[in-house]
Amino acid sequence: MPRYFTDEHEWIEVDGDTATVGITDYAQSQLGDIVFVEVPDEGAVLTKGQEAAVVESVKAASDVYAPIGGTVVSGNQNLEEDPALVNSDAEGQGWFFKLTIADKGELDGLMDEAAYKAFVESL
Amino acid sequence: MSDLQTQLDEADDAIDLPTEPLPLDAWHRAHGGRMVDFAGYWMPVQFRGIIEEHLWTRSKAGLFDVSHMGQLEISGEGAVAALEAVLPGDIAGLAPGRMRYSLLLDEQGGILDDLMVTNRGGTYYLVVNGAMKWDDIAHLRDMLPDDITLNHLDDHGLLALQGPEAAAVLVRLGLEPAMADAPAVDGLTFMQAAPYLWQGRPLGISRSGYTGEDGFEISVRAEDIAALADALCADEAVMPVGLGARDSLRLEAGLPLYGHDLTPETGPVETGLMFAINKRRRAEGGFPGAERILAELVAGPARKRIGLLLDGRLPAREGAPVLADGAPIGVVTSGGFSPTLERPIAMAMVDAAHAAPGATLEIEVRGRKLAASVTVMPFVPHKYHRQGA
Fold first, then answer.
1. Contact at CB, B337 and A55, closer than 8 angstroms
2. Which of residues 293-312 of B touch A (CB under 8 A)?
3. Handedness of CA B227, B230, B234, B239 (dihedral sign)
4. What is the pLDDT of residues B178-197, one digit of tens each?
5. Which end of chain A has fewer surrounding CB within 10 Å, N or C?
6. Is the confidence metric ipTM above 0.90 for this complex?
7. In chain B, which residues have their Cβ closer than 8 Å to the Cβ of A88?
8. C-alpha angle B36/B212/B342, rounded to 5°?
9. Nearest by Cα to B331 from B302, B376, B364, B301
10. Burial letters for A42-75: b for 16+ Cβ neighbours within 10 Å, e otherwise?
11. Cα angle at B330 between B106 and B346, to 5 degrees?
């Protein structure tokens, strides 16, 4: 399954019409210990760039914006009980939400893993 | 993820500002410290992680670099009277080798800074907040008579070693008292200070800190600080700790942070700091803002600094409105996640009518109303090594 990355440190894994969205391992390492994650409700309709989730580290709150538009199929309820999953497995079990993609054209121009890696190294 | 991006970029943006390195800068970077611009200096916000560093300090000993803070010495004939005209604390009654918490106040009794003052045997040693030190120095130079000497010890760094193992670590380090009647370092009690020698290097050590734990603050010459930090961290009980855990530790200890919980718009009565003004000074007055402060003490403050225990897991941050029965009655001044209690806690300034411990209030966070109960601070008990304890 293809995985895309944004310059705002999100990953998007695409499986047919469905995308799973999370923040990258680099992002979690920069945020530090995560103590609270708020994910969108099932059925929420998100447009690209709209506020979709909130992640709170010990220090501060950060908004997570939808990297692509679509209808939320599910939010990761495990994060409610165990927000530290984002620290331990950001690009796996620490996913934030899944959505049905509204427009696959919005994936154009996103980075692949190698490009994202190069991007992080340039920071 | 724009806000996250902003946060990630913060350190990069700060490069454009004249951020200065402190004497331990290279040491922090070599130990994996994530450096941020704080009070005009590069400071480590964390090393291994805020929660790990926080819990380590509560169970072992954390080493903090607080060299950004201002270390000042005030001396000269009449220094006691001169200091009592500036500070509301009992300086005349401060015995050599003893220290106390005090405040710089403006003429309206607003808090300009909070500080520690130590009697170093006729010379008075002040530690003031890093972000405020230049203002404080200007204020003191302005307020103190010309024949009083104010010396900024900018050739010294400051370390804090905090936690239940701190005293044992300093004993293992091997220190000699540098003054005839000074106790061995583990014989110091809370708020006591003395000079010591470590391998011939002078250290000014006090049993004090900003975590609620037993611990020490160590004033050290800049050229000696890296060797001292290495020697301390060579002890298995010691881990370097960044500003992030320093903030979460002091919040749990109920200790206010200048610029957040204390500002020029707040005074010592409403912030619960009247312990810094003793009976004699209350009776005599003669400090900035005395009239207003003493009147407020009689009448009772309109607002109070309180502690709040939040339900749920969502933390409330500085600036979040505090509500009672749906109406705004105050604002969060510091808030975050307590690693010890594993729940969010906060300090707030609220109308005095709603400040009673046990009262249930609400905090508004992103349109959501979180239940919070007023609680007596500290949130986590202090473990100071008090005299006679």
1. no
2. none
3. positive
4. 999 899 999 999 999 999 99
5. N
6. no
7. none
8. 75
9. B364
10. eebebeeeeebbbbbbbbbbbbbbbbbbbebbbb
11. 95
CA atoms within 13 A on the CB side of B38: 22
Nearest CB to A58: which of B1, B8, B248?
B248
Closest chain A residue to B313, measured at CA: A36
Chain B neighbors of A65, CB-CB under 8 A: 1-2
Distance separating alpha carbons of residues A91 and A95, to the nearest angstrom: 6
Q: Which of A8, A32, A80 sits opposite B46 (nearest CB)?
A: A32
Could you say which residues from 333 to 362 on chain B have a Cβ atom under 8 Å away from some Cβ of chain A?
Answer: 336-337, 339, 344
Q: What residue type is B384 in one-letter code?
A: Y
CA atoms within 13 A of residue B183's CA, in its CB half-sphere: 15
Q: Is B248 on the interface with A (CB under 8 A)?
A: yes
Encode B68-100 in three state secondary structure.
CCEEEEEECCCHHHHHHHHCCCCCCCCCCCEEE
Task: For residue range B97-122, list pLDDT tens digits in order.
Answer: 999 999 999 999 999 999 999 999 98
Burial of B26 (C-beta count, 10 Å sphere; 0-12/13-18/19+) = exposed
B12 Cβ under 8 Å from any chain A Cβ: yes
Amino acid at B96: P
